[in-house]
């Protein structure tokens, strides 16, 4: 394949997806030639030979490498900037998105999602590397992903990042100012990123797909302002307001406190997508009557964490009920269960991880009660994976895990293989951190070459189930459930 044919095919993609118009073609070619370190051209077939954008990306990157135009450690930035040549401008994408939206929200999101994959903003190849399996529990099927999609930074890139002068622009990874940002140091490559501007309850937000998606059409809603996460009535209204515009998506927010929140608390954002999580499939364990909100039905979800599911056709009442529950939870303590709203220094410890969806014509809000207290025995968090589970998972239990999808660290890919060897009494390099767990498994299971892989995956699933139990404030046992009812009684009494 001639290099010029690859370039021509790449330009054909740009023409097809509306990045350029026929009048721009010569201009675009010349810009691209320079970018690839070329200054010559030979006419080739106008009919595209290759239509796969990622295959063309590989071919063009090979040309660039041959011409030595990619600076050391800058591959990631160069690659995104290359894909920018086939990414329409924000104004064009926003215009087309909202035109298609007039037909239906689905037509609009499908357009944007396909485009995001074509230009490698959603990194489908990297995502495909993840290892995924499921584990059946009494709460339903939990899902487990060993996250291999974020490539390890190569040492050259790390070295280059160290030399970069610190800058506060963009203020963080979630700021809208990242759109089209070339990237430098640890600030990711965003040349090919595009954001749809959305208005929710009068506030400006940006909607984009997550580069390393954990679930179908995993998207992020970013506040136009760099301001901290906050779970309050406004957040509930925003989640429900988003559903009015995108009724087929679910949307949730990480909690707004350390330990129980996500990794970025400094920039207000939510996560959405077209996906039914295990928790959404879980049914109600019991119905609860909310005295002050007759139009809102409520129940305890059959889930290892403590979840109240509110449902109503009346969005205003639903949001008010959620707000009341939040405010009551923020001041509620039950010292017998180590649940403490406020510590002596005045720090508040209670918040909620909320998830919203529309089901059978009603708005639904799952409110997951969170408590971020620590103790001498559990310095990382009382309602956080306990130390015995840290060999599998020690990171925060954020929104995605709460909903029953474990995102486990990449190290487990090789570590679990060593555990398997150990269980088969083969020579192995199993890390010491897995030994107590592996010893326990040896006591209860018989392992053969045929079964060991599946048994280990099942055991990882059990660990994840226990992780969720540890994160639950009212445990799924008699004492815990009694505590849950006492909280509900507290909710049903008016504030004194
Ligand atoms: Zn920011």
What attributes does this structure have?
single chain, about 500 residues, alpha+beta, ten-stranded antiparallel sheet, three-stranded mixed sheet, 16 helices, about 35% helix, binds zinc ion, GalP_Utransf_C, cytoplasm
Q: Kindly state the number of beta strands.
A: 13
The fraction of residues in strands falls at 15-25%
What's the total helix number?
16
The N- to C-terminal Cα distance equals: 78 Å
Which ions and ligands are bound to the chains? zinc ion
Major sheet strand order: 3-4-5-7-6-11-12-10-9-8
Judging from the principal axes of the Cα atoms, what is the shape?
Answer: globular
User: Whole-number radius of gyration?
Assistant: 25 Å
Largest sheet: 10 strands, antiparallel
Structural class: alpha+beta
**Secondary-structure element pattern, one letter each:** HHHHHHHEEHEEEHEEHEEEHEEHEHHHH
**Low-confidence stretches at least 5 residues in length (pLDDT < 50)?**
none
What's the helical proportion of residues? 25-40%
Mean pLDDT: 96
Notes on the structure:
It is a single chain. This protein starts with a helix and ends with a helix. Strands 3-4-5-7-6-11-12-10-9-8 form a ten-stranded antiparallel beta sheet. It has a three-stranded mixed beta sheet with strand order 1-2-13. The longest helix is centred in the last third of the chain and has 20 residues, at 452-471. It has a domain at 3-69. It has 496 residues and is α+β, with helices and mostly antiparallel strands. The protein has helices spanning 3-16, 25-35, 53-66, 75-83, 90-101, 105-118, 124-127, 155-162, 233-245, 278-281, 315-330, 399-402, 412-423, 435-444, 452-471, 478-492, and strands at residues 131-137, 140-146, 196-200, 203-209, 219-223, 250-252, 269-273, 284-288, 297-301, 307-312, 350-359, 362-371, 405-408. The protein is built from 16 helices and 13 strands. It is 36% helix and 16% strand. Zinc ion (ZN) binds at residues 171-172, 174-175, 226, 267. It catalyses: alpha-D-galactose 1-phosphate + UDP-alpha-D-glucose = alpha-D-glucose 1-phosphate + UDP-alpha-D-galactose.
């Amino acid at each position: 394949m001639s290099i010029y044919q690859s370039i021509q095919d790449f330009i054909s993609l740009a023409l097809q997806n509306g990045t350029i118009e026929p009048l721009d073609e010569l201009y675009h070619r010349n810009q691209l030639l320079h970018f690839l370190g070329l200054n010559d051209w030979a006419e080739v077939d106008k009919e595209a030979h290759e239509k796969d954008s990622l295959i063309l990306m590989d071919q063009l990157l090979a040309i660039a490498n041959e011409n030595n135009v990619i600076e050391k450690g800058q591959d990631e930035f160069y690659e995104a900037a290359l894909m920018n040549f086939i990414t329409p401008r924000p104004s064009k994408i926003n215009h087309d998105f909202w035109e298609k939206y007039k037909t239906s929200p689905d037509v609009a999101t499908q357009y944007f999602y396909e485009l995001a994959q074509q230009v490698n903003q959603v990194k489908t190849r990297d995502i495909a590397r993840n290892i995924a399996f499921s584990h059946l529990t009494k709460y339903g099927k939990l899902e487990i992903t060993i996250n291999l999609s974020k490539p390890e930074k190569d040492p050259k890139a790390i070295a280059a990042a160290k030399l970069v002068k610190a800058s506060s622009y963009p203020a963080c990874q979630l700021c809208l100012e990242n759109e089209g940002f070339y990237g430098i140091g640890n600030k990711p490559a965003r040349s090919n990123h595009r954001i749809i501007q959305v208005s929710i309850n009068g506030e400006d937000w940006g909607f984009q797909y997550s580069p390393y998606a954990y679930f179908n059409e995993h998207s992020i809603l970013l506040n136009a302002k760099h301001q901290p996460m906050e779970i309050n009535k406004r957040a509930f209204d925003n989640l429900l307001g988003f559903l009015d515009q995108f009724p087929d998506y679910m949307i949730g927010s990480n909690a707004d406190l350390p330990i129980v929140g996500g990794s970025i608390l400094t920039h207000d954002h939510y996560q959405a997508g077209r996906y039914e999580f295990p928790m959404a499939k879980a049914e109600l364990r019991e119905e609860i009557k909310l005295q002050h909100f007759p139009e809102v039905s409520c129940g305890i979800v059959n889930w290892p964490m403590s979840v109240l599911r509110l449902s109503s056709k009346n969005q205003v009442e639903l949001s008010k009920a959620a707000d009341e529950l939040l405010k009551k939870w923020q001041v509620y303590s039950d010292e017998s269960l180590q649940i403490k709203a406020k510590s002596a220094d005045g720090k508040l410890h209670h918040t909620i991880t909320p998830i919203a969806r529309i089901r059978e014509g009603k708005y639904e809000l799952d409110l997951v009660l969170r408590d971020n207290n620590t103790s001498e025995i559990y310095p990382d968090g009382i309602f956080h994976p306990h130390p015995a589970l840290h060999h599998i998972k020690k990171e925060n239990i954020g929104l995605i895990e709460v909903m029953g999808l474990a995102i486990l660290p990449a190290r487990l890919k090789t570590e679990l293989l060593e555990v398997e060897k150990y269980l088969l009494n083969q020579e192995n390099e199993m890390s010491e951190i897995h030994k107590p767990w592996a010893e326990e498994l040896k006591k209860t299971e018989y392992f053969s070459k045929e079964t060991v892989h599946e048994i280990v995956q099942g055991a990882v699933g059990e660990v994840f189930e226990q992780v969720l139990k540890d994160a639950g404030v009212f445990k799924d046992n008699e004492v815990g459930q009694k505590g849950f009812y006492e909280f509900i009684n507290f909710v049903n009494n008016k504030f004194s």
